Amino acid sequence: MSVDQRPQADEVADADSHSPQAHWRTVVHAITGWEIWQHPTARVVAVVFSALLMGLVISVPLDLQGQILFSLGSFAAALLLSKTPGRLSTLAMIVLSISASSRYIYWRFTDTIGFTHWMDAAFGYGLVLAELYAFAVLLIGYFQTAWPLQRRPVPMPADVSTWPSVDVFIPSYNEPLEVVRQTVFSAMSLDWPKDRLHVYVLDDGRRTEFREFCEELGVGYLIRDNNHHAKAGNINAALKVTHSEYIAIFDCDHIPTRSFLQVCMGWFFKDTNLVMLQTPHVFFSPDPFERNLDTFHRMPNEGELFYGIVQDGNDLWNASFFCGSCAIIRRKELLEVGGIAVETVTEDAHTALKLSRLGYNTAYLEVPQAAGLATESLSGHVGQRIRWARGMAQIARTDNPLFGKGLKFGQRLCYLNAMLHFFYGLPRLVFLTAPLAYLFFGAHVFQASALMITAYALPHLAHASVTNSRIQGRFRHSFWNEVYESVLAWYIMRPVLVAAINPKLGKFNVTAKGGVIEKAYFDWTIARPYVVLLLINLVGMAVGVWKLFSSAGDETTTLVINMVWTVYNIILLGASVAVASETRQIRGTPRVAASLPAVIRFENGRTLVCKTEDFSQHGLGLAVPPDVDIPMGSRLAVSLFRSDEEGVFPAIVTFSGKGRLGVKFDNLSLHQQAELASLTFARADAWIATWGTGQRDKPLRSLKSVIVIGLRGMGQLTATAFKSLKPR
């Protein structure tokens, strides 16, 4: 697919022709531009030579001193490259990381698995398989994310008469109307010719209040007489009774901006073989990790890596996934593959796979053009991830991307990595318990000296950490991936393994959104696996300390290495426990931070110019001069603006003081609510300002944050346990 390649911001920053980086890049580009590289023989020779050189680097045997010197030199080069802007430096870091990791894996299989005792073999081979899985995911992940495409919007044709018709589908099942209405309001305000825009609520709950709401607004309301195949079946039923050329799909809590269609549809004009375009899923409420750990808007959340880097990397290989919402699909080709896939519970990704098998293009546009509600509790979050994991395992079992027709090599690897990712449950549990095999049973999972283990394993881990920090730093901080996996590992392990054996088991579950948590509590049910693993690791650490001071002997170094590993696992498990401490959430409609011009109009005719601090569908936070005194309960009107438009909304003061005013809207009509949505949630720039603009990752700082949260989790667990033991 032909796409305008644009340089990254860090490449532009060092564009000075006199800088060493620019000179080096000029030399490299000159070499790569030699005509000899156009000759097939030259390319084959270069590939063979590079492979032989890499094989030599990976397999050459070195003693302890040689391995240490080699590792230090390689890592010093990686650190130097990490300070050098540009994609060429990133690719060089990837090569160094692959070399270090491949060298470690080669050493593991050739020098460390000569087990002579059954216990050593049982634990040792289990760890080797877990490491092999992690190594495969690392390699494919580099392939997937090394060169994000960074697609940009394409302008729409000036002739509006050529713009196609679009059906907007908003599927719902058991969500309250309060959650759905904002999505409907914003969908109605999409900047698109009104005679070619058709909004439909697909109500699988068949509720009277939804029908009446849609009738009053004049939007489509579709139902069916069954709930077969859940969301996929709901959309497929709507496809039979609607007729527009394109379908835009939004989960009922995902609120589109007014610009969504104009920003996205241009690519369908530029690429006539394009059938699906996906945009990021952005959330204006904190997920359980962000809320319970107090990291909202301070640290990237669990999903940002996928939408910030992975999907953009997939796009380079024409393997962008459909994610079920915030996407546009061309009807003709969707019907050609039988509609939304119903064979698995991740119907969205499976649908994109089917489209790719037929040779159609898919695209990803990393421009936030909709935002929704995150899962409201850790149990709900875990349930959602279980469904995703089960569905990807079902696809791997029934329609594996490595096999079958229609996919190119890059597409196969991108889809394979998406499915392999959700098999991390068992390997993660192995890593969380592996050092205990030595501490409890004296099992040697490595048949090598402790110093050799350190000399090979440490470079592998260090290179992977700094390289991934370089690639992912805007959207995932170091060590947090281990926290996310530790929280979910126990829960996704069984569904994934079962689905891999019998893909027909399991069903679609709807993720609850828009609820409240009226009282803080510790979720003992969801935390039980983490608590058990934490206690086992603490006991293992105590055993290690006892051995260290009693009978370590010649194995002191081995003992210390296993104890350090155990301490790291304790920190991860402590952080997992902290996530299970649910904090209070009393707002059913989260507020969105935004500074917008506003005018307050009082009943006596006086006006006050001010700005908003935040908004929700029920009220506003306003920044006013500190000397302004507006009594609680005062009735007033607030004006909001967009270009030449002004919306006036009656409100009541609910908070007043210290330069801040809180107001609650007063009995807005449906059409006033729709107008409010177009001036707030549906603004074109509503979600761009907070997307990938946070502090970049620094591995040591991230490690410190994980340690602090891990200690906090253990403190919360101790306090909760003592509190539960007190007589009532």
TrEMBL record:
It holds the Pfam family Cellulose_synt. Its cofactor is Mg(2+). Its main location: membrane. GO terms for cellular component: plasma membrane. It is found in: Cell inner membrane. Signal peptide: none annotated. It comes from the Bacteria. The chain crosses the membrane at residues 41-58, 64-81, 88-107, 122-143, 413-431, 437-458, 530-549, 561-581. Keywords: c-di-GMP, Cell inner membrane, Cell membrane, Cellulose biosynthesis, Glycosyltransferase, Membrane, Transferase, Transmembrane, Transmembrane helix. Pathway: Glycan metabolism; bacterial cellulose biosynthesis. It is a multi-pass membrane protein. It catalyses: [(1->4)-beta-D-glucosyl](n) + UDP-alpha-D-glucose = [(1->4)-beta-D-glucosyl](n+1) + UDP + H(+). This is Cellulose synthase catalytic subunit [UDP-forming].
